[in-house]
Specification:
The protein has four helices and five strands, in the order ααβαββββα. By secondary structure, the chain is of the alpha+beta class. A hairpin with a 2-residue loop joins strand 2 and strand 3. It is globular and about 50 Å long. The chain starts with a helix and ends in a 10-residue tail after the last helix. The mean pLDDT is 95.
C-alpha cells in the first residue's frame, strides 16, 4: 500500500469508530477495531490505559449520554496516525463524573490522534474539553464576563 492508501484506510477506521462505536454503541465493532494491545497515552482520570479502559469509557459515555455522537470537522493523517478534530454532542440522562443526570444538552470539542496498524487502533493520544462539559452540567461556575 502507498503512504496515501495507508492514511486513507486509517482515516476510515477512525471514522467508523467515531460514527458506529461511539455514536451508535456498536461494541461488537469496538472489539473488531481495537487491538488487544491498545495503549491510551492520555486515559481519563480513573481509567486504565488499555483496551478495557477505552471500552469502559465508551460505555460510561453512552450510559450518561445515550444520544452521544460526534461531528467530525476535519481529519488529517501522517502515515498510520490520524488526527481528528470533532465536537461531541449528547443529552445528560445518566451519571457522569459523579454528576447525576440533569437532562441538559452538552457539546464539547476534542482533538485526538490514533494510530491504526493492520486495520486496528493500536494507540491514542487526546485532549477533550471536559472543563466545558462540567460547566454545562452546572458542576462548575461559568467564567465571569468582563
Amino acid at each position: 500500500m502507498s503512504g496515501n492508501s495507508v492514511s486513507e484506510a486509517a482515516k476510515a477506521v477512525i471514522r467508523r469508530n467515531t460514527d458506529e462505536v461511539q455514536g451508535k454503541g456498536n461494541f461488537d465493532l469496538f472489539e473488531e477495531l481495537f487491538a488487544d494491545d491498545f495503549v491510551d497515552h492520555t486515559p481519563q482520570p480513573g481509567g486504565t490505559p488499555d483496551k478495557s479502559g477505552a471500552r469502559k469509557l465508551y460505555h460510561a459515555l453512552r450510559a450518561a449520554f445515550p444520544d452521544f455522537h460526534a461531528i467530525i470537522h476535519w481529519q488529517t493523517a501522517d502515515g498510520d496516525v490520524v488526527t481528528t478534530f470533532k465536537t461531541y454532542h449528547g443529552t445528560h440522562k445518566g451519571s457522569f463524573l459523579g454528576i447525576p443526570a440533569t437532562n441538559r444538552k452538552i457539546q464539547f470539542e476534542t482533538v485526538d490522534a490514533m494510530r491504526v496498524q493492520n486495520g486496528k487502533i493500536t494507540e491514542h493520544w487526546g485532549v477533550a474539553n471536559l472543563f466545558s462539559v462540567m460547566q454545562q452540567l452546572g458542576a462548575l461556575p461559568p467564567f465571569p464576563k468582563e
